[in-house]
Request: fold
Amino acid sequence: MPWHSGVVRLLVVEDERRMAEALQRGLEAEGFVVDLEGTGPGGLDAARFGGYDAVVLDIMLPGLSGYTLVRTLREEENWVPVLMLSAKDGEYDQADGLDYGADDYLTKPFSFVVLLARLRALLRRDPAPRPAVLEAGQLRLDPAAHRVMRDGSEVALSPREFALLETLFRAHPTVVSKERILDSVWGGEGAVDGNLVEVYVGYLRRKLGRERIETVRGAGYRLAP
Ligand code: CA
Reply:
């Protein structure tokens, strides 16, 4: 566990200089060793080869977006914990960061104390690699490559549909409650209409086949065995 074994090295990828330097000062004051990168390609190289314990990653970066950066790392089976920083400008969906392989996200502007707490939680987490491909019957879901295969052919899913299906896969074969689906697919977005779950289950059934997702009355949903 890096957190208990002396020096913890962090990479901050952020092109807004004042924000980057403020983060560096704050994190160094907490005892972390912090390196800064100001571009997407520079951040990707550093994350690949720097041996960091965690990465704080902005989305809008010159050269390569934070989304592409984290997705590339996961495709290369690099599971360094990534905390994504998203601007609250409506241009991007915060949950997209998680779909692309980030471990957590914060919306700007954020409190430094909250950032610190989230980072520490990530550093405590078991760094074991996630399974490369999840399977249930004739369905396969590859979290790193962000692909779903049904009977051997690829099915195109929206980011929300993918997140919902991945939630069902990770719980398989147990039932997932509507509340847990809301939390994992729409979490952190405040009040969300619970009917969204039924709507998106409907979308998935249309794409994957009705029988693949079972409704368990009063309990929730599960993938068919
Ligand atoms: Ca930026």
Observations:
- Residues 15-16, 58, 60-61 surround calcium ion (CB under 6 Å).
- Residues 195-208 form the longest helix (14 residues).
- The first strand starts at residue 9 and ends at 13.
